[in-house]
Amino acid sequence: MQSETLVSQTLEGRDTDRLPFAARGPLSDAVLRRLTGPAGGEGAAHGELARRAVAGAADVIRDDDVQLALFALYASSYGSIDAFDPDLEWDPELIATRRILEERFEHELRMAVPAPDLPDPTADAVSRSLFALTGADSGPSLSRYMAKKATLDQAREFFIQRTVYTLREADPHSWAIPRLQGRPKAALVEIQADEYGGGRPDRVHAEIFAAALRGAGLDDTYGTYIDDIPAITLASHNMMSMFGLNRRLVGAIVGHLAAFEMTSSIPSRMYADGLRRLGFGDDVTDYFDEHVEADAVHEQIAGRDLAGALAEDRPDLLPDVMFGAAACLTVDGWVGRHILDAWTHGQSSLRKGADDA
């Protein structure tokens, strides 16, 4: 209680009114207030709150307070929330708080994600192993449900769930560019250049998705729907951010991108089919149509020239490459299962407040 009292006293008078979302517990409340106000001396209390949050959480991966706090700390580095003071991006106490959360988050992911067999550290072997891993994925098929069964309300929920990552599409993986050399760096830049529109601002994938949101009658302002996003969806984005922002996890972010690209093309076709079935036009389906072709090309580059070449050049990173790929499949599978379980029971997949969304 002493640390919580300290936080409430030192944060008194802070203004979080400009934030588009609310705290989900004492930790996220303290982090949000700190990020929207001047640096003070309450950092030790943040660290204590972080330790209490992870110690008391039954499942950090699905804990609302922990995942929102992590999301906010990462959003400060992305610059995606205008209310966050840029002078606090590298605040030592906030970085220390982030590390406490990351340590437990990564530990739980490594315990929960099935470890795939390690191939030989050659581009061919790694590429074949990644294609086999993604091809054997038996996670819930959200794309098949969207193609055949989803209602208009569920389609809008689907868009809302995707706003966390897709309005920042490619950014988590771009942290890896300066951390790579030679063939892997060239491959990643080739993929990311397409993600960012190949020099055409209107074809930046995040912008195409923003247009799809508007076409579906939704708000394309980043952060608008965070209050409605469940912790597991935040965790999927936070995992990417953690992999990308920590140099020691460069193998994991590379493996994540490889699996991400390898599992995008066919689902994107199904999503587009489902949206057309519901009567949406090209302004809404364009994003998914774009990914049918683009990701069919990207998966080859990501498998061999990026992940495979990195394993050849740095065999010590191979375990993390495969872990990152498996984590992508596992966590995105949890997100898909959460959404489908809700829909098949006639419920919303969003948090309380979904009716207002």
Q: The CATH topology of the largest domain is what?
A: Heme Oxygenase, Chain A
Output the radius of gyration: 20 Å
List the helices and strands in order: HHHHHHHHHHHHHHHH
Mean pLDDT: 91
Per DSSP, the total helix count is 16
| Name of the CATH superfamily of the largest domain | Heme oxygenase-like
User: Helical content, roughly?
Assistant: 55-70%
| Largest sheet properties | none
Number of domains: 2
Strand content: under 5%
Structural class: mainly alpha
Report the CATH C-level class of the largest domain: Mainly Alpha
CATH architecture of the largest domain: Up-down Bundle
Topology, number of strands: 0
Distance between the termini: 35 Å
| pLDDT < 50 stretches | 1-14, 353-357
Shape assignment: globular
Features:
globular, disordered N terminus, mainly alpha, 357 residues, Heme Oxygenase, Chain A, 2 domains
Textual characterization of the structure:
- The chain has helices at 2-10, 26-35, 43-56, 64-78, 92-112, 123-135, 142-148, 152-166, 171-174, 182-195, 205-215, 231-245, 250-262, 265-277, 282-313, 318-344.
- The chain is globular and about 50 Å long.
- It has 2 domains: 2-112, no CATH class; 123-344, Heme Oxygenase, Chain A (Up-down Bundle), CATH 1.20.910.
- It has 357 residues and is an all-alpha fold.
- The longest helix has 32 residues, at 282-313.
- Helices cover 65% and strands 0% of the residues.
- Residues 1-14 and 353-357 have low confidence and may be disordered.
- Helix 6 packs across helix 13 (250-262).
Compact description:
The chain has 357 residues and is mostly helical. The chain contains 16 helices and no strands. Mean pLDDT is 91; it is low at 1-14 and 353-357.
